[in-house]
Specification:
The complex is a heterotrimer of chains A (118), B (174) and C (437). Chain B is built from 6 helices and no strands. Chain B has helices at 2-22, 26-46, 50-74, 89-110, 123-145, 149-170. Chain C has one domain (6-350). In chain C, helix 2 (58-68) crosses helix 10 and helix 12 (337-369) packs antiparallel against helix 13 (373-396). The chains are: A mainly alpha (118), B mainly alpha (174), C mainly alpha (437). Chains in contact: A-B, A-C, B-C.
């Protein structure tokens, strides 16, 4: 069964070689004439002010954690979906309860403003 | 072939693990962690655990590491994080946990064919037959939604707890 | 109709790997030209036409130029990560095509060769897993550049991609229900058996898949990570020459894969409509074309001309979606970031969850009643149409559909107060029709 992955491995090898080759080839071929202005980060012609690595809003963190929760839910649905017709109503009820629990969380997050982006 | 691949994946996984600890920047640690997770997924494929391999990459590499990425962005990167580590109670706890984990692993490796954990494992040929009959995902679906349905529902509650906890922490000051 | 020997498998696999890899890169190169030609057509100008006949050699010229141009890197950038980022973006983008079947199996003297690079048991989950890794290339590019615009672009892109990954996953669940497996070869086969493209019984899933695919590929109207009017070019602001080109190749490969997936999942893949001569599937080590009345499998007769014809069918379907991607790009303005998040989390997620349960219940009821075949598909089509109507109504909120069927508002009179009747339907500022163009 896992021999079916052999072409995937080959394709990975080819694409890694391709990516490295592109970087190396352009490194070799292109000219390099660095000036202090060229080495400056591009901020539409302005001289950059302040530190780039500022801290980010907690909103992104909320997006990431909601993503994990609901992505896991979607992943749990995959095996059920594949075998849904064989599992019948028993599986349907099990998934309904599972989903109900998570919908409670979803509604709570919505009401608390965790999904707002203002 | 399988043996060679196993050693390659195992070496990358261990090297990546070392890299996580030794990398100077947190983003570098994260990339090493990705390499480790990816090679563990490769080992899962060698063990015929196809669905688990896909989930390993989707959930750990694709979801949880993204959260780590955002956490790194939320932290103050100018701050030297190594000052936060002191050889205190946390370090002792870490060693205790690592020891317990090693103990469990040793116990698993010692286990013979009649060990309860192996009762479900039908062997390489049985696994091939099972996969051919039900597909890589179907083979997981039947036990998950019949014998282990309670654990499945509890997972839902665990996810709910995680979500509520995250909202409680993130929304504290707002 | 025997299977291949290990040696023949290895050789045929390497040929397929190299063919698919080089063809997909060539297609990507010509997609850049197509995009500029389509843009020219839509904006009523010519597009590139200087290099070669009809500008056909433009991608070659661009490639040479990209290799020879000077690359810049900010002195404050993180050097190893800056170089690694384009590689991390391009590798997952070009390997995802591996599991997509592109033609009917081809008979050779050494056995029947499946026209898919790798028919692995996890099928489309492989695509999902690898495309979820695309986030890192973009994020790392933004972070390593040490440029405020680039960093904002990187953070935006990762946040947007994860938001729509949930909807993307949920839109696939109904497909798995009908196909009963996650491999794309079986999804094509089940569509042939049903005699109906999944586009019809699962119309809402298709719409969600298309919307999420646009968001995942960072294309307009979801191109906030590189919104040029706000962020210069977003995460690849500091990249030039070949490294910039690598991000472009990654983006266009994603479009190619997404188009091929739409064709495979919802338009029957390589199968030719209204013709059963191309029905072929590996069933218990045997290539079959269907089941007889007694349930016994009937052996299929693969042929070179069938393979070529189905390949053509696959190319036409994929090309159609590629052109849709470009058409949309030059037609719709960009969303605001809060609109992107609102659509992903508050509209698509709940509706997709409800849709999954509705389709599941419908299939189970139909199975219990014993309805099969065409009627089965027809009932599902009706249910899906109903759900699609509800979704469109929820998104539209009485703005576009009823707004466009109404008489255009008369030109506002100069004198004191405009009459209220025609004004109520006038689009508010910031709505799509008045966005930045």
């Amino acid at each position: 069964m896992s021999s079916a992955y052999l072409p995937v491995l080959m394709l990975f090898g080819v694409s890694v070689l391709n990516a490295v080759g592109m970087v190396v080839a352009s490194q070799v071929l292109n000219p390099r004439r660095a000036t202090p202005e060229k080495d400056m980060p591009y901020e539409s012609g302005m001289i950059p002010l302040g530190d780039t690595r500022a801290r980010f809003s907690v909103k992104f963190y909320m997006v990431a954690i909601s993503f994990i929760i609901f992505d896991l839910e979607a992943i749990f649905l995959i095996p059920w979906a594949v075998e849904m017709r064989a599992l019948g109503w028993g599986g349907f009820v099990a998934v309904s309860i599972f989903m109900m629990v998570l919908v409670v969380g979803f509604v709570y997050e919505w009401k608390k403003g965790g999904l707002d982006w203002e | 072939m399988v043996d060679v691949l196993f050693y390659v994946f195992a070496a990358v996984a261990l090297g990546g693990g070392l890299g996580v600890v030794l990398a100077r920047s947190p983003v570098g640690s994260l990339l090493f962690m990705l390499a480790t997770l990816f090679s563990v997924a490769g080992i899962f494929v060698l063990l015929e655990a196809h669905f688990l391999a896909a989930i390993q990459v989707m959930v750990y590499a694709g979801a949880i590491m993204v959260l780590f990425l955002f956490v790194i962005m939320l932290l103050n990167l100018g701050h030297d994080f190594r000052k936060d580590f002191t050889f205190g109670a946390g370090m002792v706890a870490a060693f205790v946990v690592a020891g317990v984990m090693a103990g469990f692993l040793a116990r698993q490796f010692r286990g013979s064919g009649d060990h309860p954990l192996y009762a479900f494992f039908p062997g390489p040929e049985g696994m091939d037959a099972l996969l051919a009959e039900q597909g890589a995902v179907g083979a997981i679906a039947h036990p998950l939604f019949t014998d282990y349905v309670v654990a499945f529902e509890l997972t839902g509650i665990l996810l709910l707890m995680a979500l509520v906890g995250a909202i409680a922490i993130a929304k504290q000051r707002v | 109709m025997h299977e291949l020997s290990p040696m023949a498998f290895a050789i045929s696999s390497s040929i397929k790997v190299f063919l698919v890899f080089s063809v997909s890169l060539a297609v990507v190169a010509f997609m850049t030209l197509t995009e500029r030609k389509v843009a020219g057509f839509i904006q009523d100008r010519l597009g590139p036409n200087r290099v070669g006949p009809f500008g056909l050699l433009q991608p070659v010229a661009d490639g040479i130029k990209n290799f020879l141009k000077e690359e810049t890197m900010p002195a404050t950038a993180n050097r190893p990560f800056f170089i690694m980022a384009p590689m991390l973006a391009i590798i997952p983008a070009v390997v995802t095509f591996a599991v997509i079947p592109f033609a009917a199996p081809l008979p050779t003297p050494w056995g029947v060769v499946g026209m898919v690079v790798a028919d692995i048991p996890i099928g489309i989950l492989y695509v999902l897993a690898l495309s979820s890794l695309g986030v890192y290339g973009l994020f790392l590019a933004g972070w390593a550049s040490n440029n405020k615009y680039a960093l904002l672009g990187g953070v935006r892109s990762s946040s947007q991609m994860v938001s729509y990954e949930v909807a993307l996953g949920l839109s696939l669940i109904p497909v798995f229900m009908l196909a009963g497996n996650v491999t794309l070869t079986e999804i094509v086969w089940q569509q042939q058996l049903l005699g109906m493209w999944y586009l019809f019984p699962l119309s809402l899933a298709f719409i969600f898949f298309v919307i999420s695919a646009f968001a995942e590929t960072n294309r307009l109207p979801f191109d906030l990570p590189e919104a040029e009017s706000e962020l210069v070019t977003g995460y690849h602001t500091e990249y030039s020459a070949m490294k910039f080109s690598m991000f472009m190749i990654a983006e266009f490969s994603h479009i190619l894969t997404a188009s091929a997936l739409m064709a495979t999942l919802f338009l029957g893949g390589w199968s030719i409509p209204f013709w059963s001569g191309d029905h072929m599937f590996w069933y218990q080590g045997m290539l079959i074309s269907g089941f007889g009345a007694d349930g016994a499998p009937v052996a299929a007769a693969p042929a070179l001309w069938i393979t070529l014809l189905t390949l053509l069918s696959f190319i036409v379907k994929t090309l159609f979606f590629i052109l849709v991607f470009m058409w949309v790009r030059w037609t719709l303005p960009r969303f605001r970031y809060d609109q992107v998040m609102h659509l992903g989390w508050k509209v698509m997620l709940p509706i997709a969850l409800a849709y999954v349960m509705i389709i599941a219940a419908t299939i189970l009821v139909l199975d219990q009643v014993g309805i099969e075949g065409f009627l089965f598909g027809a009932v599902l089509t009706l249910v899906s149409l109903l759900c699609t109507g509800i979704f469109v109504f929820a998104v539209d909120r009485d703005r576009i559909i009823s707004g466009s069927t109404r008489e255009p508002a008369p030109p506002a009179p100069r004198s004191p107060v405009p009459s209220g009747a025609g004004v109520r339907r006038v689009l508010p500022a910031g709505s799509p029709a008045s966005g930045d163009l």
